[in-house]
Design goal:
With about 230 residues, this protein is mainly α. It has 2 domains: about 100 residues, no CATH class; about 80 residues, no CATH class. The chain is about 60% helix and about 10% strand. The protein is built from 11 helices and 5 strands, in the order H-H-H-H-H-H-H-H-H-E-E-E-E-E-H-H. A 3-stranded antiparallel β-sheet has the order 1-5-2. The two termini are about 40 Å apart. The N terminus is likely disordered.
Amino acid sequence: MFEFLLDVYNIRIFLAIGMLSIASTIDIWKREINDVLWIGFGAIAVVLIFFEPDLIYTLKNIGISLIIAPLALLLWRVGVFGGADALGLIVLAVLAPQISLSENLITPFTTLTNAALLAVIPIFTNVIRNLIALLNHKNIFEGFEETKSKKTLAIFLGYRARNPKYGFSIETMEGSHKKLDFSLKHAEKAEFSNTPDTWITPGIPYILYITTGFIVQIVYGDIVLNAVNFW
């Protein structure tokens, strides 16, 4: 048991989960992650390299895993997620390069693709929340002048919040009528809505999806690749 815990491979897994868990907790609490966290775990990742039994293999593996870096930086620049999420993915590529406890296939992009799929979950939550409101005869589109197609899309993408806290507004005013606004929000520049009784889309920290995506990678592998192989 003690030897299992001291194995560098397992140490990498424990540290990676620990890093992502700390980041997720801080992001939920403060909605901001200090770069010190990534610097600290990045330094640990570099030190671990010298404890590997096969240094050349480890360096090659890390090099392949860092293919994720340009994509992560690009997604940050276009506003899909924040800079902290991009740094987290890059440090993760060095700390736990292509690591899994399953025998299923994974790639340098597995954590990110798993996270992207898991990010769809709030859609189901929105639909359930809105259906319950409609069944309770609430006029969730009161004051709106919109097409049925846009209203249907809104039911999937958001909900009407009485006191929004961490969500981005998806409504705007045109004259005396409200309109739905589905324009893309920049993850770092968009401000949370604080207007009562407004339609919002949930502002869930993306690091939560990255953390869950990595855990899925550890125990199951790549969701997309496994689904393709299954069919």
